[in-house]
Design a protein that fits this description.
alpha+beta; six-stranded antiparallel β-sheet; 6 strands
């Protein structure tokens, strides 16, 4: 075998088996998120459904949704705002549409089954270290969605 071919095979093998190419799993991501949240002073808990992570911040319960099928997708969600009547729900559709138009990094959605609202943002991450980088922005994005939605509803 030529020297260059051997060198290329060695480089490919080193990359493939290196920690940089380590497979991200839901379990690894869950542990990294729990650790990070504790470091930030939150009290994270695993949810009964889906083994996602919930934590309280500023009176709201947020959920980090993790997926076994797509462990690189990290979603931060907040459920809230129950509707009093069909007029309020109709207004919520309009408000959510405006928020979704104005805010590009998340979404506000009316959830028919729960008669309430859902707010979320998501990021694709490559390693557990990315949690520290993306989480603060994700939290501020969801808070901004909720704030904008409330402002639209109060018009």
């Amino acid at each position: 075998m030529k020297t260059i071919t051997k060198t290329l095979i060695l480089i490919m093998a080193l990359f493939f088996f290196s920690p940089l190419h380590a497979q991200l799993t839901k379990s690894k991501l869950s542990s990294a998120c729990m650790d990070y949240l504790r470091e930030q002073g939150y009290v994270p808990t695993l949810t009964e459904v889906g083994n996602n992570i919930s934590f309280k911040a500023e009176g709201n319960t947020f959920v980090l949704q993790l997926s076994e099928e797509d462990p690189e997708c990290l979603i931060l969600a907040l459920y809230g705002w129950e509707f009093d009547d069909s007029n309020e729900k109709a207004k919520a559709y309009v408000a959510a549409n405006k928020v979704n138009w104005d805010k590009k990094m998340g979404r506000a959605a009316v959830v028919e089954e729960d008669n309430g609202m859902y707010f979320d943002t998501w990021n694709l991450i490559r390693s557990t270290d990315d949690v520290k980088f993306y989480f603060p922005r994700m939290l501020s994005t969801v808070k901004s969605l909720v704030s904008s939605f409330r402002a639209e509803m109060n018009k």
